[in-house]
Write a structure and sequence with these properties.
Elements: H1 6-25, H2 36-51, H3 59-73, H4 76-93, H5 101-118, H6 127-141, H7 147-168, H8 170-175, H9 180-197, H10 214-219, E1 226-233, H11 239-248, E2 251-258, E3 261-268, H12 271-278, E4 283-291, H13 292-299, E5 308-314, H14 317-325, E6 329-332, H15 341-350, E7 355-359, H16 366-369, E8 379-382, H17 388-394, H18 404-417, E9 419-425, E10 430-432, E11 435-437, E12 442-446, E13 449-454, H19 457-470, E14 475-480, H20 486-499, E15 504-509, E16 517-521
Parallel strand pairs: 5-6, 5-7, 7-8, 14-15
Antiparallel strand pairs: 1-3, 1-4, 2-3, 9-12, 9-16, 10-11, 12-13, 14-16
Length: 522
């Protein structure tokens, strides 16, 4: 039998598209991305692209294609949960030969089961509650009419459930709003009803006098970390180990599997670490990283649009906190995770400043940084720092109240006088100049030049330190990476002090991946 489903998807997509902006503004829970409506719409858009113009031989073929497309296109908490609702409904409909009232009610129940199962700790007052109530209404309506009547009953109850969400969730009640994802579910059901009857979608929103207080919503948003999403294809490895690591890496974690594919959504301060880890289990696709803290900052009015701002590329939670304490807007990026010029441009705009200093903190990011001025209205000054440690030292010269020319000059002078060193591990055998580098050895770089190849981080660090101290440095700052323990860090610090009693050694917990240690001296 031939199965065509694009018209149903198109109706749901059209209904949601008409209300996506309003749903976006309602986004409050659990940790706002600011784009619930858009995320749900992208999920439907992925399905629409898959099904448009397609005819499937069996219901099983059609539902398998829909479920896969939903998962591939899912973005954010709301998009991933919606994809699981769709998957649950498709699993029921795969065994049906026609879409009857009974089949629709069973599909909503399947959607409910999958949605709740996809969330580690289900919270009522969200889109989960709405699909649960809609499914119950559909079951209760059986026998009172055909398919259109059952869809209408589920849609009406969904909207009623949305209106009740503040009673179940305190953050909604405090802000005086309803749940955004739940409203998206109700609107999608409106689309299904319109498709089944050919009628216009019933207007279900309050008038402008009852519009939500968006300022109240945004004031309650928790600004924390980066919304990180990716797909692992060809997944191979210990699934429980993978799940434990991802769950420990941040908040609002959602993981969904489909054969050898795993879709991951989480909020984390170190998206690069999560991506690097996941890459060991298969090929990464659909990677998206968004700075949620910047999203919230962008809504805040800037009292002084003429102030001087600074943007720094960085990896590691400790480093991020250090930069932010000194007034920088941080872009996740560094070795192995270089941000694009567009990423840097967004961060420049997030500062709200008319003049912005940009610290790349990696030689591979410098070219992108130098293109940013073409993408923004602000005046952009690149101080070409090549390590995170050097960027932190250069931040000492930043004065948000100073004139841009003077501050840029001061920061460039600081950067030019620094000794910048870093230690990393060789991933293969190599020969660099006269130095033979075996796989697994620790390489020590000073100002970008490979000067030491040793068997341990400590030996490589002390080899570099001897050269730095011999060149007349007075202060050395050690920036501990993710792979270096505190005991080893202190041994290195003592070893440097033993080189010269007069030298001052400071230590910082940076948390950067790939480089167990970075050093900067002046």
């Amino acid at each position: 039998m031939a199965v065509e489903i694009a018209s149903v998807v198109a109706a749901a997509h059209a209904a949601l598209k008409a209300q996506a902006a309003r749903i976006n503004a309602l986004n409050v829970y659990p940790v706002p991305d600011g784009d619930t409506g858009t995320n749900m719409l992208l999920t439907l858009e992925s399905i629409l692209e898959e099904t448009s113009g397609e005819t499937y031989e069996t219901p099983e073929d059609a539902t398998r294609a829909v479920a896969r497309a939903a998962l591939m296109g899912a973005r954010g908490n709301s998009g991933v949960i919606l994809s699981q609702m769709i998957r649950g409904g498709c699993e029921v409909l795969a065994a049906q030969t026609s879409l009857t009232a009974e089949a629709f009610a069973a599909a909503l129940e399947g959607a409910r089961e999958r949605a709740y199962a996809s969330v580690g700790e289900p919270v009522e007052g969200t889109m989960l509650t709405v699909i649960k109530d809609a499914a119950q209404a559909a079951r209760d309506a059986l026998g009172n009419g055909g398919l259109p009547a059952v869809i209408q009953a589920s849609a009406r109850e969904a909207h009623a459930s949305v209106r009740r969400t503040p009673e179940l969730l305190g953050v909604l009640r405090e802000a005086g709003v309803v749940d955004a994802g739940g409203l998206g579910v109700a609107v999608i059901l409106d689309g299904f009803y319109a498709c089944a009857t050919g009628q216009e979608i019933e207007e279900t929103f309050e008038d402008e006098d009852g519009a939500p207080d968006l300022d109240a919503i945004h004031a309650r948003e928790e600004a924390w970390g980066y919304c990180t999403e990716f797909i692992v294809t060809g997944f191979a490895g210990d699934a429980h180990e993978f799940e434990d690591y991802i769950n420990s890496s941040g908040k609002s974690v959602l993981m969904v599997t489909d054969e050898d594919l795993v879709k991951v959504h989480l909020h984390t301060q170190d998206p690069g670490g999560a991506l690097s880890y996941a890459g060991g289990f298969g090929r990464l696709a659909g990677v998206k990283v968004e700075d949620m803290e910047a999203q919230v900052r962008s809504r805040e009015p800037h009292a002084d649009e003429t102030k001087l701002g600074v943007v720094a590329a960085s990896r590691g939670e400790g480093n991020r906190e250090l930069f932010e304490q000194m007034g920088a807007v941080v872009v996740e990026g560094g070795q192995g995770a270089n941000p694009s010029a567009a990423d840097l441009a967004r961060a420049v705009e997030d500062t709200g400043a008319s003049s912005v200093i940009l610290l790349p903190n990696n030689k591979n990011i410098v070219p992108a940084a130098e293109q940013v001025h073409e993408l923004v209205r602000a005046e952009v000054h690149v101080v070409p720092t090549t390590t995170i440690a050097a960027g932190l030292a250069t931040m000492v010269g930043f004065d948000p109240e100073g004139g841009s020319a003077e501050v840029v000059e001061e920061m460039r002078e600081i950067a030019d006088t620094l000794f910048s060193a870093e230690v990393t591990r060789a991933v293969r055998d190599a020969r660099v100049g006269e130095l033979k580098v075996p796989e697994g050895a620790y390489m020590g770089f000073l100002d970008g030049e490979l000067l030491a190849v040793e068997g341990s981080v400590e030996d490589a660090a002390l080899s570099l330190a001897k050269k730095i101290v011999g060149a007349g440095a007075d202060v050395v700052t050690l920036l501990r990476g993710k792979e270096l323990d505190e005991v080893a860090l202190q041994r290195i610090a003592h070893g440097i002090r033993d080189l010269d009693d007069a030298i001052e050694v400071e230590v910082r917990d940076g948390g950067q991946p790939l480089y167990p240690l970075q050093m900067v001296a002046e």
